[in-house]
Amino acid sequence: MGKETIRGLKLSMPMEDANGTSIASTNSAKRLHDEDYGGDLMLPHQGNSSKRRRLNFFPWKLMEDSPVNTYATQVLENMRNLKLLVLYNVNFTGSFEVFPRSLVWLRWHGCSLSSIPEDFSLEKLVVLEMWSSKLQYVWKGVMV
Questions:
Q1: CA-CA-CA-CA torsion for 57, 52, 46, 29, nearest 10 degrees?
Q2: 45 has pLDDT over 70
Q3: What's CA 122's distance to the chain center, in Å?
Q4: SS3 78
Q5: What is the mean pLDDT of the chain?
Q6: CA distances from 124 to 33, 48, 100, 101, 103 (A)
Q7: Confidence label for 9 from pLDDT (cuts 50, 70 and 90)
Q8: Cross-referenced PANTHER family, in alphabetical order (predicted)?
Q9: Cβ distance 115 to 139 under 8 Å?
């Protein structure tokens, strides 16, 4: 298996004014603000909400209807260098001590836990996204 490192991430989004004229290239270092152009900026997908409604395309609806998968926490035991973990409608059984301690970003949509387990390592965790989860408490008791 190979090992790859992502050093940076660039979001490339062309911007146009109301006339369709390009006002920023993907290589432009200048930051553009909506008020600089009188509020006439048009993003590529602006105004598509009505189309999405007609097509019934809402990601959260897809997620609510997807089946829930259950795995043992041991499936992550050997992933010691894991930095990003994305889970959709996944339940885990077993001890969370074996979860990767190097985890920086956890996106766990549809988490069925009511609180984060005490044995789950939060040492390096920076981002925690838990949309559509049943989380009621961040954790029970006192965390030291």
A1: 20
A2: no
A3: 17
A4: coil
A5: 69
A6: 34, 38, 10, 7, 6
A7: very low
A8: LEUCINE-RICH REPEAT-CONTAINING PROTEIN, TMV RESISTANCE PROTEIN N-LIKE
A9: yes
